[in-house]
Amino acid sequence: MSGNVKDASGTGMPGVSIAVKGTQRGANTDVDGNYKISVPDNATLVFSFVGYKTQEVSVGNRTTVDVSLAEDNQVLNEVVVVGYGTQKRQEISGTVASVNSKDFNAGVVANPLAAVQGKVAGLTINQTGSDPNSRPTVRLRGVGSLAAGSDPLYVVDGVPGVPIQNIDANDIASVDVLRDASSAAIYGARASNGVILITTKRGKSGRASVDYNAQFGVDMVAKAPDYMSGSEYRDAVKKFGFTLVNDQGANTNWFKEITRKAPITSHNLAFSGGTENFSYRASIGYLNQQGLVLKSGFERVSARINLDQTALNGKLKIATSLSLINGKRDYVNYDAFTYSITNLPTDPVYTKDPTFQTPGSISAGTGYFERLGEFGAFNPVALLEQTTNYSKSIEYLGNINLKYSITKDLVFGVNGAMKGSKQDGFFYISRIPKSAQAGLGTASRSTGPVDNGQSEDNLLEFTLNYNKTFNGLTFGALGGYSYQDVNFEGFNAVNNNFITDDLLFNNLAAGAGVSLGQRANDAVGSFRSNYKLISFFGRATAALNNKYFATLTVRRDGSTKFGQNNKWGLFPSLSVGWALSEEAFLKGNPTINNLKLRVNYGQTGNSEGIAPYRSLALVGPSNKYYDNGNWLPTYKPSQNPNPDLKWEVNENYGAGVDFALWNYRVTGSLDYYIRNTKDLLYEIAAPLSIKPLYPTILANVGSMRNQGLELSLTAGIVEKGDFRYEATVAAATLKNEVTALAKGEFIGSDKIFLFSGLGAATRGTSAVPFSLIKVGLPVGAFFGGIVEKLDEKGQFIFKDIDGDGKISENDADRDFQGSPLPKFTASLTNNFSYKAFSLSFLLNGQFGNKIFNAERMMYANPNNRLPAENTIREALTSPVRDTRTGAFSYFIEDGSFVRLANFRLGYQIPGKGVLSRAQVYISGNNLFVLTKFKGVDPEMNTGFATAGIYTKQQFPKARGFQAGFNLSF
Length: 969
Fold this sequence. Notes:
It contains 8 helices and 57 strands. By secondary structure, it is mainly beta. Residues 435-439 have low confidence and may be disordered.
């Protein structure tokens, strides 16, 4: 059997896969599209190629079969979710990235953001350690703010402001990322940091189906801190001429004592189906993730139901969703990490010696060992085991979306949503003294909101959408109104001096602290606040002859958060696109299948950093005074008014190109952007010109610029018989610079030093700024002395930067030492398949950022901590004896790394009977890291004051392995 395969233009197609259906026999076409293959009688040939529709041909008695394959423009016709609607990929002129559920990262995904890590160029997701109760730092096109927050806006099924960290990833159909301001401007004053749209799975008409996904895994510490053992510590004390007092003869690995192997389990059961006019999908999920540290963990039960109904002869479409999430979080005191390292490895965890025993006992005659009176030598095992600290939360979201077709082209929509959350927190620390507690027993209970304090959020929106195609022009117009009402509230109570630990926080009245006056100022507390957002928005789209595209949007937001003089903000955007591949000089080109140029401009705002009432003059509690036998409260000014307070403004310029080459075998996009953020919010010293009532004021004082390139590239590298290999690259560059720190009468310092509050984590550094905000430098830049060498006594010899012949401890001899922000990020996703087997793995990395290793500064120097505390092994050979602290170049390291983030190996079991699909797999996370960084792990948060600062007070990073299966009935 032989033949030829051509495309629609009649050109022979090389590399087309031809398979004999039902067998493992196959072949590929040569450079001219010709093929030869041996076939049995009555065979059926299957012709397939990336970017073209698969075609099946029955051979019959023929010896020659020629085929013409039609283009499958699925890439271009893919429907992408945008704000308040959808668009075909071909018609989008902004910068929008999409990730479908089938492309999510492998492994147990407690936070859905982990499912798309490394999938979108310019989107970085970092997490220091593997605390199951911490959220990753998410940045889209760099840091966008100084104090107003830099997280994107999350929109779930059309509802903005939904906390997504607790959504079960099994319920998500797709994640669409609006990267530029022209795409995000439809969300106005909340879209400065980009918008991430989450679309959950919905039912389809047809046979009812049941899907069950289960995963079982275990996490372990990927790498432990490199601190000395008991024998090494004893040798070090002798080597450096110290005396070890009261050697207990132990060899305790304190870090190992507070950590464990942590199991993780996930289940999700979903039911879906429907008819022509009604469909449903309901699911219930369970996640139990123990933390690597004793008593840490996260447990979640989630339920969701999505219903879709068509009525009135197809004119009315009703989509409803209801979700409920019940969670329990067990927290740990991060001081335990400090104590696990500073405690001497020669001391035991438990002792029967009353000289070193905390009062009380854990068993007859045995108590926790502590060097009572020694600062920083508190028993970390006791701290964790004798503290109860957890929260229970309930989150709900219900929304209904109605669309009524007034005419074929005109649709009226109503979107309503109610979401809320309630969290109860419980805390009790035992009467056994440790960690500087006074032995009184302290308990508290609090009821209040979770996730930024939102307890009740009501949304009502109306839209009118018009779409019409005539004479090659597709025109769309959207107009809308939005009203959102958000309420916050909370309550807390605390007491101490309990006579027993048995009651914990279940009877706060049993504590004597209030009656003794020990909790007189903070025994109870409560708060309540509210803000409203009213918006008008519109969008116009046009596509002419599938060649020329344009989108114009505008939104006007009014918020009660803003100052009296700036109640309303206007946010416009414009983007245009030109499909060169549809022009006569490129149409039908065998190499270039799609080539589209895009240009965009837009403005968005950031109002998330403004809490309610921040523009008003406020009073707050002050000291109590004694009068006639009673202690009475007083109040004083606590905040200055700022009638000009407004949102931050993100002004974005960008240009990009989308392309598809070699019969859609290679697809991708390349974008360049400039992101100018103006009117940055920051708390500064109040100028005398406003006659301040309070020393500081929140004001719009600065500006910042981010710019960079973003590349997304997917290639079908190998397609031969049953073997496939596809790779996807997402890469981005970033340059960040602070461009101003003053506006009008509000003038910030020319250098704003950032005090990170690291005293508890690294004693001796609480008043030492390692980084700053300075015009001309990246935000959070490290600023310190340049160490040229060490003298014979191990003291730092600094560079004389100002050339005056002496070294100053002030700014004159300090300089920029590097940025905590990566200059380049990249990821490589690899997907292999062979018959029923599939293998995928993700490599990601960050490059060009610096990390200040505060741990080495304080614990690689024997003069700093020996013999009172343990130190890292580097202290045995380090020549440093200088005890001065600062962001010195000696301790600033390259933070670049490459990580094998995850892998998954799966096997597809053929369906049989009621079982339509079955897959089993094994997967892993954080398999290895390549880096020059000397600490435990180079992945640091890119938050604000502590960005890129590495200390010993870090939750350990996990390496996890899982096994699971997916079944469909």
